[in-house]
Amino acid sequence: MRILVVEDEVQLADALAEILKRNKYNVDTDYEGIGGLDDALTGVYDCIILDIMLPGMNGIEILRNLRKEKINTPVLLLTARSEVEDKINGLDCGADDYLTKPFVTGELLARVRALTRRKGSEMIDENKLEFKGLELNKSTCTVLYESNDVKLSLKEYQIMELLITNPRQILPKERIIEKIWGYESDVEYNNIEVYISFLRKKLSVISAPVQIKTARGIGYSLE
């Protein structure tokens, strides 16, 4: 899953990005409001962590613009303010959750997990996704069926997570690149094909009851 962090405190933004990357999220960062809005409007993110006090354009303005443009990405507002009025204003403008600085890392991750749960896949616990008996385990970076499991590389895990959270949906190759490598990436389609080939072999090894199918010229789906 891909997360956008918009935070003008550079050290905090970079620390948040590192924490999220260690938890196997793809992360982009912006340190000011206008750039943050431009990135958020691409619609490629699964969650946006948005500071309220930003140079150029504040978080509330960004949020209003996103909802005006029908971008429904979950937004977690992050701010040093603790007044009830600020929370109410943020939530009324379309925020999905609100976290006041300073915060505990575990709480931040729990809120992100809650915001990024998707329909079509069943959450077994905070570290696992399931589809038709196939389990994807975040903490061990493995995919498992019955008593068989196999280790995945980081990119394999991220692609598998994208597929399992969007079951039976054809994911265009462009969308996969945007989600896994970033929308400004120069990664070519054959990179995706290589990782899909690896995943198919690993699913076969564990006798998984699902397949990664190719929609020729378009992309892939988990069936």
Topology record:
Layout: E1 2-6, H1 10-22, E2 26-30, H2 33-40, E3 47-51, H3 59-68, E4 75-79, H4 84-92, E5 97-100, H5 105-116, E6 122-125, E7 128-131, E8 134-137, E9 142-145, E10 148-151, H6 154-164, E11 171-172, H7 173-180, H8 189-205, E12 212-215, E13 219-222
Parallel strand pairs: 1-2, 1-3, 3-4, 4-5
Antiparallel strand pairs: 6-7, 7-8, 8-9, 9-10, 11-13, 12-13
List keywords for this structure.
five-stranded antiparallel β-sheet, alpha/beta, five-stranded parallel β-sheet, 223 residues, 39% helix
Total number of β-strand segments?
13
Mean pLDDT: 88
Overall, the morphology is elongated
Total helical segments: 8
Q: Tell me the span between the first and last alpha carbons.
A: 20 Å
Task: Kindly estimate the percentage of residues that lie in beta strands according to DSSP.
Answer: 15-25%
Radius of gyration: 18 Å
For the biggest sheet, the summary is: 5 strands, parallel
How do the strands of the widest beta sheet line up side by side? 2-1-3-4-5
SS class: alpha/beta
Helical amount among residues, as a percent range? 25-40%
Low-confidence regions: 119-124
